[in-house]
Design goal:
mainly beta; 0% helix; binds zinc ion; 61 residues
Length: 61
């Protein structure tokens, strides 16, 4: 599954984890997130996320 990164704050959306604090269950792909969903860290809209391929190593937080 593909991870997506918030270009504003660097938050990584990992579909294997989901976003429990926002009620997003594990296994929900980024594309399946509701339009109302935003970055849990900074509130950025989905449009401000870019795909984060496994080949890119941005480090582990
Ligand atoms: Zn963010």
């Amino acid at each position: 599954m593909e991870k997506w990164r918030c270009v504003v704050c660097g938050y990584i959306y990992n579909p294997e984890i989901g976003d429990p604090e926002s009620g997003i269950a594990p296994g929900v792909l980024f594309e399946e997130l509701p339009d109302s969903w935003g970055c849990p860290e900074c509130g950025a809209e989905k449009e401000l996320f870019e795909i984060c391929s496994e080949d890119d190593d941005y480090g582990i937080y």
